[in-house]
Amino acid sequence: MSDPTEANGTAGAAEGAEPGQGDGANGRRVQVVLVDDHRMFRTGVQAEIGQTEQTGVEVIGEAADVDQAVTVITATRPEVVLLDVHLPGGGGVEVLRRCAPLMADAERPVRFLALSVSDAAEDVIGVIRGGARGYVTKTITGTDLVDSIFRVQEGDAVFSPRLAGFVLDAFASTDAPPVDEDLDRLTQREREVLRLIARGYAYKEIARQLYISVKTVESHVSAVLRKLQLSNRHELTRWATARRLV
Protein backbone atom coordinates (compact mmCIF):
# COMPACT_ATOMS: atom_id res chain seq x y z
CA MET A 1 0.00 0.00 0.00
CA SER A 2 1.46 3.31 -1.02
CA ASP A 3 1.77 6.24 1.35
CA PRO A 4 -0.38 9.29 0.68
CA THR A 5 1.25 11.65 -1.79
CA GLU A 6 0.75 15.30 -2.57
CA ALA A 7 1.13 17.00 -5.90
CA ASN A 8 2.60 20.40 -5.06
CA GLY A 9 2.79 21.93 -8.52
CA THR A 10 0.70 25.00 -9.26
CA ALA A 11 -1.68 24.70 -12.17
CA GLY A 12 -0.97 27.23 -14.89
CA ALA A 13 -3.46 28.82 -17.22
CA ALA A 14 -4.19 26.97 -20.43
CA GLU A 15 -2.56 29.10 -23.10
CA GLY A 16 -3.74 28.85 -26.65
CA ALA A 17 -6.64 26.56 -25.75
CA GLU A 18 -9.67 26.79 -27.98
CA PRO A 19 -13.12 27.49 -26.50
CA GLY A 20 -14.82 24.28 -25.39
CA GLN A 21 -11.56 22.34 -25.41
CA GLY A 22 -11.88 21.53 -21.70
CA ASP A 23 -12.92 22.87 -18.35
CA GLY A 24 -9.48 24.42 -17.90
CA ALA A 25 -10.08 26.51 -21.02
CA ASN A 26 -13.04 28.12 -19.26
CA GLY A 27 -10.85 29.27 -16.40
CA ARG A 28 -12.37 26.90 -13.85
CA ARG A 29 -10.09 25.24 -11.33
CA VAL A 30 -10.71 22.69 -8.59
CA GLN A 31 -8.34 20.95 -6.19
CA VAL A 32 -9.07 17.27 -5.63
CA VAL A 33 -7.88 14.42 -3.40
CA LEU A 34 -8.27 10.81 -4.62
CA VAL A 35 -9.16 8.18 -2.01
CA ASP A 36 -9.15 4.59 -3.25
CA ASP A 37 -7.39 1.45 -2.02
CA HIS A 38 -6.34 0.40 -5.52
CA ARG A 39 -3.20 2.23 -6.62
CA MET A 40 -3.68 1.40 -10.30
CA PHE A 41 -7.17 2.89 -10.22
CA ARG A 42 -5.89 6.09 -8.63
CA THR A 43 -3.18 6.30 -11.28
CA GLY A 44 -5.77 5.81 -14.01
CA VAL A 45 -8.10 8.48 -12.66
CA GLN A 46 -5.27 10.97 -12.33
CA ALA A 47 -4.16 10.26 -15.91
CA GLU A 48 -7.74 10.70 -17.12
CA ILE A 49 -8.76 13.88 -15.32
CA GLY A 50 -5.58 15.35 -13.82
CA GLN A 51 -4.35 17.23 -16.89
CA THR A 52 -5.03 20.57 -15.24
CA GLU A 53 -4.64 22.83 -18.27
CA GLN A 54 -7.25 20.80 -20.17
CA THR A 55 -9.67 19.80 -17.41
CA GLY A 56 -9.16 22.37 -14.67
CA VAL A 57 -8.73 19.54 -12.14
CA GLU A 58 -5.62 19.58 -9.94
CA VAL A 59 -4.99 16.39 -7.99
CA ILE A 60 -3.19 17.51 -4.82
CA GLY A 61 -3.20 14.27 -2.84
CA GLU A 62 -3.98 10.56 -2.70
CA ALA A 63 -4.84 8.06 0.02
CA ALA A 64 -5.40 4.31 0.20
CA ASP A 65 -7.18 3.81 3.54
CA VAL A 66 -9.19 5.68 6.13
CA ASP A 67 -6.30 6.97 8.26
CA GLN A 68 -4.33 8.14 5.22
CA ALA A 69 -7.44 9.82 3.82
CA VAL A 70 -8.15 11.80 6.98
CA THR A 71 -4.50 12.86 7.24
CA VAL A 72 -4.22 14.01 3.61
CA ILE A 73 -7.63 15.72 3.51
CA THR A 74 -6.93 17.59 6.75
CA ALA A 75 -3.48 18.68 5.54
CA THR A 76 -4.46 19.78 2.01
CA ARG A 77 -8.08 20.97 2.48
CA PRO A 78 -9.15 20.14 -1.09
CA GLU A 79 -12.36 21.50 -2.53
CA VAL A 80 -13.55 18.03 -3.57
CA VAL A 81 -12.63 14.52 -2.43
CA LEU A 82 -13.25 11.56 -4.74
CA LEU A 83 -14.06 8.86 -2.19
CA ASP A 84 -14.26 5.11 -2.64
CA VAL A 85 -16.91 3.47 -0.48
CA HIS A 86 -14.97 0.33 0.47
CA LEU A 87 -11.72 1.20 2.21
CA PRO A 88 -9.50 -0.50 4.79
CA GLY A 89 -10.02 0.93 8.24
CA GLY A 90 -13.76 1.58 8.27
CA GLY A 91 -14.87 2.49 4.75
CA GLY A 92 -15.88 5.77 3.17
CA VAL A 93 -18.49 6.39 5.85
CA GLU A 94 -15.74 6.51 8.47
CA VAL A 95 -13.79 9.06 6.42
CA LEU A 96 -16.91 11.21 6.23
CA ARG A 97 -17.52 10.91 9.96
CA ARG A 98 -13.99 11.99 10.82
CA CYS A 99 -14.01 14.82 8.29
CA ALA A 100 -17.39 16.21 9.36
CA PRO A 101 -15.88 19.47 10.73
CA LEU A 102 -14.25 20.13 7.35
CA MET A 103 -17.55 19.60 5.54
CA ALA A 104 -19.27 21.99 7.95
CA ASP A 105 -16.77 24.82 7.41
CA ALA A 106 -18.93 27.62 6.02
CA GLU A 107 -16.02 29.56 4.50
CA ARG A 108 -14.08 26.71 2.92
CA PRO A 109 -16.07 23.45 2.92
CA VAL A 110 -14.53 20.19 1.77
CA ARG A 111 -17.10 18.39 -0.37
CA PHE A 112 -17.17 14.67 -1.09
CA LEU A 113 -18.15 12.79 -4.25
CA ALA A 114 -18.34 9.01 -3.87
CA LEU A 115 -16.75 7.13 -6.77
CA SER A 116 -17.31 3.41 -6.41
CA VAL A 117 -17.69 0.16 -8.32
CA SER A 118 -20.71 -0.59 -6.11
CA ASP A 119 -24.20 0.50 -7.08
CA ALA A 120 -25.80 -1.17 -4.05
CA ALA A 121 -28.54 0.92 -2.45
CA GLU A 122 -27.14 0.52 1.05
CA ASP A 123 -23.74 1.86 -0.06
CA VAL A 124 -25.29 4.85 -1.79
CA ILE A 125 -27.56 5.72 1.10
CA GLY A 126 -24.82 5.19 3.69
CA VAL A 127 -22.39 7.74 2.23
CA ILE A 128 -25.12 10.27 1.44
CA ARG A 129 -26.32 10.09 5.02
CA GLY A 130 -22.68 10.53 5.99
CA GLY A 131 -22.52 13.84 4.16
CA ALA A 132 -21.31 13.11 0.61
CA ARG A 133 -22.71 15.46 -2.04
CA GLY A 134 -23.02 12.79 -4.70
CA TYR A 135 -22.35 9.25 -5.84
CA VAL A 136 -21.18 8.04 -9.24
CA THR A 137 -20.01 4.62 -10.33
CA LYS A 138 -16.65 3.75 -11.86
CA THR A 139 -18.26 3.22 -15.27
CA ILE A 140 -18.46 7.02 -15.61
CA THR A 141 -16.49 8.63 -18.43
CA GLY A 142 -13.64 11.03 -17.74
CA THR A 143 -15.58 13.95 -19.19
CA ASP A 144 -18.64 13.24 -17.05
CA LEU A 145 -16.48 12.77 -13.96
CA VAL A 146 -14.85 16.17 -14.46
CA ASP A 147 -18.31 17.72 -14.85
CA SER A 148 -19.52 15.97 -11.69
CA ILE A 149 -16.51 17.24 -9.72
CA PHE A 150 -17.20 20.85 -10.71
CA ARG A 151 -20.89 20.49 -9.91
CA VAL A 152 -20.08 19.16 -6.45
CA GLN A 153 -17.58 21.98 -5.96
CA GLU A 154 -20.42 24.41 -6.67
CA GLY A 155 -22.66 22.72 -4.11
CA ASP A 156 -24.86 20.63 -6.39
CA ALA A 157 -25.88 17.05 -5.62
CA VAL A 158 -24.72 14.62 -8.32
CA PHE A 159 -25.75 11.01 -8.91
CA SER A 160 -25.48 8.42 -11.63
CA PRO A 161 -29.03 8.22 -13.05
CA ARG A 162 -30.07 4.89 -11.50
CA LEU A 163 -28.76 5.81 -8.07
CA ALA A 164 -30.83 8.95 -7.58
CA GLY A 165 -33.91 6.82 -7.02
CA PHE A 166 -32.29 5.08 -4.06
CA VAL A 167 -31.71 8.39 -2.35
CA LEU A 168 -35.20 9.72 -3.07
CA ASP A 169 -36.78 6.54 -1.71
CA ALA A 170 -34.58 6.50 1.39
CA PHE A 171 -35.22 10.13 2.32
CA ALA A 172 -38.91 10.22 1.37
CA SER A 173 -39.65 9.17 4.94
CA THR A 174 -37.64 9.45 8.13
CA ASP A 175 -38.97 5.99 8.98
CA ALA A 176 -37.65 4.36 5.82
CA PRO A 177 -37.08 0.61 6.42
CA PRO A 178 -33.67 -1.02 5.98
CA VAL A 179 -32.74 -1.61 2.37
CA ASP A 180 -31.80 -5.23 3.05
CA GLU A 181 -32.88 -6.87 6.30
CA ASP A 182 -30.28 -9.64 6.02
CA LEU A 183 -27.45 -7.20 5.44
CA ASP A 184 -28.72 -4.98 8.24
CA ARG A 185 -27.95 -7.78 10.71
CA LEU A 186 -24.23 -7.39 10.05
CA THR A 187 -21.97 -4.90 11.79
CA GLN A 188 -19.91 -2.46 9.72
CA ARG A 189 -16.76 -4.54 10.26
CA GLU A 190 -18.58 -7.76 9.28
CA ARG A 191 -19.69 -6.06 6.06
CA GLU A 192 -16.10 -5.09 5.29
CA VAL A 193 -14.94 -8.68 5.81
CA LEU A 194 -17.84 -9.97 3.73
CA ARG A 195 -16.92 -7.77 0.78
CA LEU A 196 -13.26 -8.72 0.90
CA ILE A 197 -14.09 -12.43 1.13
CA ALA A 198 -16.42 -12.03 -1.87
CA ARG A 199 -13.60 -10.30 -3.78
CA GLY A 200 -11.43 -13.39 -3.27
CA TYR A 201 -9.09 -12.10 -0.56
CA ALA A 202 -7.39 -14.68 1.67
CA TYR A 203 -7.75 -14.34 5.44
CA LYS A 204 -4.18 -13.04 5.78
CA GLU A 205 -4.82 -10.38 3.11
CA ILE A 206 -8.02 -9.30 4.86
CA ALA A 207 -6.16 -9.06 8.16
CA ARG A 208 -3.57 -6.75 6.56
CA GLN A 209 -6.23 -4.65 4.85
CA LEU A 210 -8.25 -4.09 8.03
CA TYR A 211 -5.35 -4.04 10.50
CA ILE A 212 -6.73 -6.95 12.51
CA SER A 213 -5.51 -10.46 13.29
CA VAL A 214 -6.26 -13.53 11.18
CA LYS A 215 -8.09 -15.01 14.16
CA THR A 216 -10.35 -11.95 14.28
CA VAL A 217 -11.04 -12.32 10.55
CA GLU A 218 -12.03 -15.95 11.13
CA SER A 219 -14.37 -14.87 13.93
CA HIS A 220 -16.03 -12.27 11.71
CA VAL A 221 -16.47 -14.78 8.87
CA SER A 222 -18.07 -17.27 11.27
CA ALA A 223 -20.43 -14.57 12.53
CA VAL A 224 -21.39 -13.56 8.98
CA LEU A 225 -22.06 -17.17 7.94
CA ARG A 226 -24.18 -17.73 11.06
CA LYS A 227 -26.23 -14.54 10.65
CA LEU A 228 -26.85 -15.14 6.95
CA GLN A 229 -27.42 -18.89 7.45
CA LEU A 230 -24.75 -19.81 4.90
CA SER A 231 -22.38 -22.78 5.00
CA ASN A 232 -19.10 -21.64 3.42
CA ARG A 233 -17.27 -18.77 1.72
CA HIS A 234 -18.43 -19.89 -1.74
CA GLU A 235 -22.07 -19.45 -0.73
CA LEU A 236 -21.12 -16.17 0.90
CA THR A 237 -19.52 -14.96 -2.33
CA ARG A 238 -22.63 -15.86 -4.34
CA TRP A 239 -24.80 -14.08 -1.76
CA ALA A 240 -22.71 -10.91 -1.93
CA THR A 241 -22.48 -10.96 -5.72
CA ALA A 242 -26.27 -11.33 -6.08
CA ARG A 243 -26.65 -8.12 -4.02
CA ARG A 244 -23.90 -6.32 -5.94
CA LEU A 245 -21.82 -5.84 -2.81
CA VAL A 246 -18.53 -6.91 -4.40
TrEMBL record:
Domain (HTH luxR-type) ranges: 179-244
Lineage top rank: taxon: Bacteria
Gene3D superfamilies given in the database record: 3.40.50.2300
Pfam assignment, any one: Response_reg
UniProt cross-references to PROSITE patterns, sorted A to Z: HTH_LUXR_1, HTH_LUXR_2, RESPONSE_REGULATORY
4-aspartylphosphate modifications at: D84
Region entry Disordered, spans: 1-26
Domain Response regulatory: 31-153
GO biological process terms on file: phosphorelay signal transduction system; regulation of DNA-templated transcription
Chain segments annotated as coiled-coil in the UniProt record: none
Keywords: DNA-binding, Phosphoprotein, Transcription, Transcription regulation
GO MF, one annotated term: DNA binding
Residues making up the signal peptide according to the UniProt record: none
InterPro entries: CheY-like_superfamily, NreC/VraR/RcsB-like_REC, Sig_transdc_resp-reg_C-effctor, Sig_transdc_resp-reg_receiver, Tscrpt_reg_LuxR_C, WalR-like
Compositionally biased spans, kind Low complexity: 1-18
CDD domains, A to Z: LuxR_C_like, REC_NarL-like
Listed name of the protein: DNA-binding response regulator
